[in-house]
Automatic annotation (TrEMBL):
Species of origin: Phyllobacterium ifriqiyense
Residues passing through the membrane, by range: 9-30, 95-121, 133-161, 181-199, 235-257, 285-307
All residue ranges annotated as the ABC transmembrane type-1 domain in the record: 95-300
Pfam families per the UniProt record, alphabetical: BPD_transp_1 (PF00528), BPD_transp_1_N (PF19300)
Keyword Transmembrane part of the UniProt annotation: yes
InterPro entries linked to this entry: BPD_transp_1_N (IPR045621), MetI-like (IPR000515), MetI-like_sf (IPR035906)
This protein's record includes keyword Nucleus: no
Protein name: Peptide/nickel transport system permease protein
Predominant cellular place of this UniProt entry's protein: membrane
Location(s), subcellular: Cell membrane
Keywords per UniProt: Cell membrane, Membrane, Transmembrane, Transmembrane helix, Transport
Signal peptide: none
Family: Belongs to the binding-protein-dependent transport system permease family.
Its membrane topology: Multi-pass membrane protein
Length: 315
């Protein structure tokens, strides 16, 4: 188990290193002068040269990369040109919104999807199965920004039960903050729940067709016991894969939903930094998101070994 875990961690570190090279290359080696992009095309030459000197744009590319990477490892993400504050402070402030939003959305998606997937698989070919998968297909097809606007209209404008946008702030209480995240969480969770429900059903149906399942049934075990004690655990690996991908998407792909609900999260920060040409902020946020995605994938790999010990016992 230790060897299996060590290999996955090493792969994760190497992937993060490769990702840092790509992020640096894309955002630092953009066509044109990065300093002029940040200041705008109407900036004076003196202002451009001053920013180039301040941010080290005049140094050789390889030195800039290793300097940037070394600063990242020490927690120094640079200073935002737009906000004039350390980038790490902006990230800490915004992740307090994006992380709970992603976690709540993932919890809602899981709570909704897995029971529906199990229900549909246990009734394969029935009207209930067809109806459940039809609803799931609709959920996949609905754009989450359109669904978000629909939720705002129903629950904020018509019923006046939940806020239409903004974030109350954790310092103003737990419940007001959670209320601010309910609608965006549901908007994010719906398409993910639809995908997860379909994957759960397909994975369970594959397992239910195996010989050992038929043997268990032939020994007199009830259908329910076979489903929950034998089939479900063996069907979890594809489900865990999708869960890992979904968390990564929910954390990194909230730009549209956060802008719809005016949430001060990482997605909105990236959007603002791009429009303001604040490349330092974009680099820092993207690397945080990449590191989170890689860490989640490593944890998913390790969870495979817990669900199916054969994966690491063969290593």
């Amino acid at each position: 188990m230790l060897s299996y875990a060590s290999k996955r961690v090493v792969i994760g570190i190497l992937t993060l290193l490769a990702a840092s090279i790509i992020v640096f290359a894309v955002l630092e080696v953009v066509p044109g002068d990065p300093a002029r992009l940040m200041l705008g095309m109407n900036a004076t030459e003196d202002a451009v040269r001053a920013l180039q000197d301040q941010m080290g744009f005049n140094r050789p590319l390889i030195l800039r990369y290793f300097s940037w990477l070394g600063n990242l490892l020490t927690g120094d993400f640079g200073k935002s040109y737009t906000y004039s504050v350390p980038v790490i402070d902006l990230i800490k402030e915004r992740i307090a919104v994006s992380l709970p939003l992603a976690l709540i959305s993932l919890a809602l998606s899981t709570i909704i999807a897995i029971p529906i997937g199990i229900f549909a698989a246990s009734r394969r070919g029935s009207t209930a199965d067809t109806t459940a998968m039809g609803i799931a297909q609709v959920g996949v097809a609905i754009p989450n920004f359109w669904f978000a606007l629909l939720l705002v209209y129903i629950f904020a404008v018509v019923l006046r039960l939940l806020p239409a946008g903004g974030f109350a702030g954790w310092e103003n209480g737990f419940w007001p903050s959670i209320k601010s995240l309910i609608l965006p969480s549901v908007a994010l969770a719906l398409p993910q729940a639809s995908i997860l429900a379909r994957v759960t059903r397909s994975s369970l149906l594959d397992v239910l067709g195996e010989d050992y399942i038929r043997t268990a049934r032939a020994k007199g075990l009830s259908r329910r016991k076979v489903l929950y004690h034998h089939a479900l655990r063996n069907a979890l690996i594809p489900v865990l894969t999708i869960l890992g991908m979904q968390f990564s998407f929910l954390l990194a792909g909230t730009i549209i939903v956060e802008n719809v609900f005016y949430l001060p999260g990482l997605g909105r920060l990236v959007f603002q930094a791009i429009t303001q040409r604040d490349l330092i902020v974009v680099e820092g946020v993207v690397m945080i998101l990449v590191a989170t995605v890689i860490a989640v994938n490593v944890l998913v790999d390790l969870s495979y070994a817990i669900v199916d010990p054969r994966l690491w016992s063969r290593k």
